[in-house]
Amino acid sequence: MLKWNASISADSLLLLTKKEQEILELIKKGLSNKLIARQLGITPDTVVRHSSRINQKIAAQPLDGNITSILLEKINMFIKNNEIKITPTELSIWLMTAQGLSAKQIARHTSRSPRTIEKQRESIMEKCNVNSFRKLMALIICQ
Questions:
Q1: pLDDT, tens digit, for every residue of 40-51?
Q2: Fewer CB atoms near the end CB (10 Å): N or C, the chain?
Q3: Separation between Cα atoms, residue 17 and residue 54, nearest integer Å
Q4: DSSP state, 138?
């Protein structure tokens, strides 16, 4: 999953191919890999490969404290505005996922299994009535 760093530098964008830039824009809109593939006339596997390259090129740096606090503020605002009941653990997992950490990385950090992290992510998505974390993050960022 791509890190949701709203302040991608112009220099980082120059590293991306035209196709990667197109895919990045569609990812920001919250489209699934299947929808992106259909729209661009490529396979979902190609979208995954491009997403991985985008992540390597622009999202390799950890998010700084300011961006993390902005994300947390936006997540809390979304939860409050939509009257969603999220446990503190789910909130923590949501924030770590938003920072681009994989289920395995979160599991190591929280001393849980990756499957537990996946189930908690599913619970968050169910509570927010979305079917992908990408769509959820697009909702948060666009509010």
A1: 999 999 998 888
A2: C
A3: 9
A4: H
The structure tokens listed for 61 are 């740096």
Q: Give the SS3 label for residue 116.
A: helix
pLDDT class of 4 with cuts at 50, 70, 90:
very low
Q: Encoding tokens for residue 71? A: 């994300």
Q: Which amino acid is at 66?
A: N
- Category of 2 on φ-ψ map: left (φ > 0), alpha (ψ -120 to 50) or beta: beta
* Amino acid at residue number 102: S
Predicted TM-score of the model (pTM) = 0.57
Tokens matching residue 8: 């991608």
C-beta separation of 1 from 125 below 8 A: no
